[in-house]
Amino acid sequence: MRTLFIITNAAGKIPQKIIESDSIGTDKIRNYFTEHNFIVKIYTYQDFIQNYAQIRDIIPGSYFFYASSQYPDYYSAIEDVLLLIKESGGILIPDFIHFKAHENKYFQELIKAKLGIKCPASFLISSLEEGLEKIKSFTFPIVAKLPSGFGSSNVTLIKNSKETEMFLEKNLISVVKKRKNIFKYRKQLKEMENKHPLKIGKIIFQEFISGIENDWKILVFGNRIFYLKRYFKENDFRASGSGMFDNSVPPSENILKFAAEVKRLLKTPWVSLDIIEKENNIYLIEYQCVHFGLYTVMKSSSHFELSEDNFRQINGQVDEDMLFAEELFSYINQIEK
Questions:
Q1: What is the pLDDT of residues 298-337, one digit of tens each?
Q2: Tens digit of each residue's pLDDT (9 = 90 or more) over 260-304
Q3: Peptide bond before 72: cis, by omega within 30 degrees of 0?
Q4: Cα separation of 228 and 218, whole Å?
Q5: Rg (CA), the chain
Q6: Left, alpha or beta for 120 (phi > 0: left; psi -120 to 50: alpha)?
Q7: 31-86 per-position pLDDT tens digit
Q8: pTM assigned to the model
Q9: Do both 215 and 301 map to the same domain?
Q10: Is 210 exposed, middle or buried (0-12, 13-18, 19+ CB in 10 A)?
Q11: Domain stop point among 207, 224, 243
């Protein structure tokens, strides 16, 4: 028999609904897989660590559906456990690469470039020196992002070179820490000069697409596509967190095709996409395959299903817990073909 591990956080949850602490229904998923002849084991991360020696022999070839976290220190601990599972032969769903992209806009840009996914031009900065040099080629305004942050946090619009310099100075970390002894501090700076970046970190600068009034939140589960039109607040370029949502207006077929293709390229059972469209050009802004909100599904009165290159609109709501169960099961069957 096949084995599915469900790995939860310390509270026994996989938080991923409208409220960050609300959990996917792990019992529903367990029951669904049990009915389909799976052995299902549910552990918290801590329980998994404690029992690793006893279960290590059944990890290779087993499937793992798991919780993530928006809190950096807890995320780091989870990362260590997931890497152990991967190196032990476990099959993570979604894949480890998608866990790495969770709240990591820097890494997302690398993946989008690798897969050739159309997005606004982006510049990845890891040092002050790189940033100051790159400023010379910018066309303003430009969007500045820190790698982590959700709901449009840590995203701002920068209007000129001076503001860009200030953003770099504020958000990059000094290699040489300030000292009370100013002479020793200056000596350390002098020793590091031209040998190592003096300020380091991760920053994303992204082309600003003007002249649009909304973006689209698109969630793709298998061949099912859910949508939410999100308007920008007045004098704000960010739609996420604006609260100005409309789920009665469907996206264009081009957006549906784009979303389905991005999901295919990412090789994931499900994905949350932030998409913008301007003059028939469609761009992916950000994506998440792990730990994304389910407002778009839970508030949906209809969705689209893709079948033989045609999109059919289906009215009515769905059970979001069963959505995960069904698509997880379907994805595993695809892997095994």
A1: 999 999 999 988 999 999 999 999 999 999 999 999 998 7
A2: 999 999 999 999 999 999 998 999 999 999 999 999 999 999 999
A3: no
A4: 7
A5: 22
A6: beta
A7: 999 999 999 999 999 999 999 999 999 999 999 999 999 999 999 999 999 999 99
A8: 0.92
A9: yes
A10: exposed
A11: 207
For 203, the domain range is: 122-207
**Both 237 and 307 in a single domain?**
yes
Q: What are 200-223's pLDDT values in tens digits? A: 999 999 999 988 999 999 999 999
The whole-chain average pLDDT of the chain stands at 92
CA gap 140, 124 in Å, rounded: 16
Number of domains in the chain: 3
In a domain, 330, yes or no: no
